[in-house]
Amino acid sequence: MPQREPYDGPILEIEDLSISFFTRLREIPAVMDFSCRVMPGEAMGLVGESGCGKSTVALGVMQDLGVNGRIVGGSIKFKGQDLGQMTLEQLSKIRGSEIAMIYQEPMASLNPAMKIGKQLMEVPMIHEGVSEDEAYRRALEVVEDVKLPDPARMLNSYPHQLSGGQQQRIVIAMALMANPSLLILDEPTTALDVTVEAAVVELVKDLGKKYGTSMLFISHNLGLVLETCDRICVMYSGEAVETGSIEDVFDQMQHPYTQALFRSIPLPGADKNARPLIAIPGNFPLPHERPNGCNFGPRCDYFEAGRCDAGDIKMHEVQGVERHKTRCLRFEEIDWDAPLELAETKTKGEIGDVVLKMDNLKKYYEVAASALFGGGNKKVVKANETLSFEARESETLAIVGESGCGKSTFAKVLMGLETATEGSITLDNKSIGNTPIENRDTKTVADVQMVFQNPFDTLNPSMTVGSQIIRALEIFKVGKNTDERRQRMLELLDLVKLPRAFADRMPRQLSGGQKQRVGIARAFAGDARIVVADEPVSALDVSVQAAVTDLLMEIQRKNKTTLLFISHDLSIVRYLSDRVMVMYLGHVVELGTTEQVFQPPYHPYTEALLSAVPIADTSVEKKHVVLEGDIPSAMNPPSGCPFQTRCGWKDKVAGGLCEKEVPPVRILAEGHQVKCHLSDAELAAMEPVIKIAAE
Description:
- The protein is of the alpha/beta class.
- It has 3 domains: 12-229, 3-Layer(aba) Sandwich (Rossmann fold), CATH 3.40.50.300; 354-392 and 403-532, P-loop containing nucleotide triphosphate hydrolases (Rossmann fold), CATH 3.40.50; 583-692, no CATH class.
- The chain has 21 helices and 26 strands.
- The strands form 5 sheets. Strands 6-7-8-3-9-10-12-11 form an 8-stranded mixed β-sheet, sandwiched between helices. An 8-stranded mixed β-sheet has the order 18-19-20-15-21-22-25-24, sandwiched between helices.
- The longest helix is centred in the first third of the chain and has 18 residues, at 194-211.
- It is globular, with a radius of gyration of 27 Å.
- The chain starts with 11 loop residues before the first strand and ends with a strand.
């Protein structure tokens, strides 16, 4: 790798930066009065909700704001040189070699028609003019650095032959090829599974240390920033509102927005009934509708009229703490240690009788071995293997696991979009596993409904919100006439806490959180008994997540709904669910109450999942388990235990049993089962993954 001259000043210095986008109608300020410094070897986390200007800052650093974007004030200096004053030629020398950027979606950075090796070799060949042999040697070295198996084979592969986690590692390798001084990471793990995310984050930290690279890490996940960064800058509506070291901002926050963000995320120990999450009231202001004075004013608990809205608010130094600043006039008057005003305590709905029962459900798919041309040998994809469980009235059962573990396949069979290969599903003692949706009666269709991950894809863009809910009511045969259905539609909008005026709005006029509420209203239009929520909050901002999860809980309490909550975010699962089912490669590897699953003994896979979840709390200590390798293909599963290829406990089992036999289901305690060959003594000796340090 090329060695850079050491530089002891700030690598990146942004001062009073303002960026606007110009449309035919108006100038839209995206970033205002933004300042931040990144020192050599330092990792700075940039945190905030969608639309707060994080990515715009990154694009400003890259001087890549497109035709409409313009820096209208302040400066961005890289190693003391003003990037805004550079010629295109000077910029192109710095971009990719001195400053590299890793984007959210790895395939956006890879050429699908070029082998990985060629794409990596281009970097030093273009930037440094090295020979092909030297470039290949460096490419091999960097692929080893990002811990990819069989580097020579990787270099000879096309991007589509790699998994998402492997693609993202190649993109990181590409960024590191020129040993940049500054690495900008824009939500680099959003599209990845939590276990892959943990490995990628670990990798970024190690490489930062090895190469001494400074980093600007953009994320909306506070736990991830805690685990990767030294310093943090919290943004709200185009402005930095608080900045400081991780410890200062997490433990001694000095801005109401930072405090509100922390109140809306589930931390270990939070209880959905005794201590519900507190969603931030109101909505994020649009850029051309920002309030006077403090942008957060209309949503702030400490707002003082005539003072907080009187004029622009500058960043203030927090006394006695170096490099800790806040954009709040009242930060010295607020009692930051005051006990939380508890949100209204909720009474838990009584868990009733069994509503849904699955017995030895199997779902296999047959695919042609040569999928491109059909014909040839058939291969079987075992998407679900002998799934058995029960779900009761008013209960939340969480289903967790990585992509490809069979969560969504099981949901499709339950919904009737697929039929079971073997086994049975009974809903209120009626068998539905082999009845496709078109043959189900109206009541069954209305009884089993789904809330999807992405609210943008599930609404018809050309129909008003009201007419889409009324359409669902017609299908479910609710109401005798149009007036009754319209009245019921307005009641459903009340149920999901949307103003009735939204009935006449088009989906494009709604935010992501509002669209998800419409999706929930539609799912409950026929008084659903069971709602399958497939990652319903993962596409939403932290503060909106709290409001939507709370809403689901409230409707559940009112309607006694059974909620099947599919998720990979174990923090939300721990907060929401009564019972948890852990799936891996089509198998249920653990099933128990939330308490049982989150306390040892665990299945080794559950242990790895818990260790992978980033937690935004400096008092939490975590046992470190990083899974090696990717999930095997369901088309070619390993022999024996499905998890044995990645399990760190395998050598504790004698006689290679893990590789020979699928483990039997064992009952550890009442209602707690695992599929594992470990002895009772080994399981009993397991240590907790998450420890909360004593105050």
